[in-house]
Amino acid sequence: MPELSNRITTLNNGGTDGWDVFYKARRRVAAGEKITELTIGEPDDKTDPEILEAMHQSAIGGHTGYAAVPGTPELREAVAKRVAAQSGVPTTSDNVLITPGAQAALFAAHLCACDAGDTALYIDPYYVTYPGSIRGAGAVPHAIVTAPENGFCPTAIQLSETPEASSLLINTPNNPTGTVYDANTLEAICGFVRDRDMWLISDEVYSTQVWEGAHISPRALPDMANRTLQIGSMSKSHAMTGSRVGWLIGPEEAIAHLADLAIVTTYGVPGYIQDAAVFALAQGKGLEDKHAKPFERRKNIAMRLLSGSKVIQVIPPMGAMYMMLDIRSTGLSGEEFAHRLLDERDIAVMPGESFGQAAAGHIRVAMTVDDQTFEQAISTLREFAESL
Ligand SMILES: Cc1ncc(COP(=O)(O)O)c(C=O)c1O
Question: What's the CA-to-centroid distance between 384 and ligand 1, angstroms?
Fold first, then answer.
């Protein structure tokens, strides 16, 4: 085999991709064992049958050929209207690129903001694909390591101490911490990117899942619409992870170039998926709330079951579909705890270390199983932690 490119071999920076516990759980499930999986952000709800019917009708109706590469006019328009209504920022179809999920948008946004070798900032703890997405785009990832005592939010001092960079990637509501950035944090972030004349890449895939505070889109802050690449997705809001449909919102000129990038990479999103997304968005907030509610309910279950524990500190999630538990007082690392919980109690969670340095000594629990199974798993998790 000829030599592989550095670009492809360094995506994970020579380390693991942080998913060992997940793979181990999946192997045991494949072998027929009963494991409670609280690992990945896969909603237990399935895509609504009416959305699937809309997809079917579109496909049967012939929308199976190449679709408009930047997105169909109908979906771009529907997304523009939704983003304008949610954020109050005037947004037209020309500000919207439809992508195969938020992941493709994250990669495209870094290619748009960074030249090869530029530094791209991101916040630790982080969604696992962030550093690899930055490396894949040819940029150099630089983490801003937040502290649990600051609610895992970056401070103005931390931002001011970063090296020169082309972009800053943020994610609110946050995976893995469940933090929702408040106005003060967002003002500090926006002030920082304005002063340094940088791009802000704002991953807002959990914007419909907020239990405390409110989702503020940084694109709505003064002088931000022209320097923000906002990312959204149908994956979590409409339980459509497998449909691969999301978007990138940005200044018209950036979107025009990003459409050229789509031509040489994804060549767009299937038309029947886009039609299903138009149908889903037209169902409005009712459907989004229906998919969001189970996570809020389970968050309340876990808060009740873990209250008073001297071993597990809960970081109350304000949004998204995960909980971070501080298990440092067990004396185990997040990785050791997660492996032992799987080996000894058949429950799979993600080690905090998979999400960066700041989350070491924590575990992330995805609230993605039915209430009864979740309740049982949290009780067992507490019993296990307290037995150590
Ligand atoms: C913070 C965050 N961004 C992006 C994604 C990717 O979403 P999509 O399925 O739209 O590619 C995820 C998925 O878990 C996520 O948690």
Answer: 30
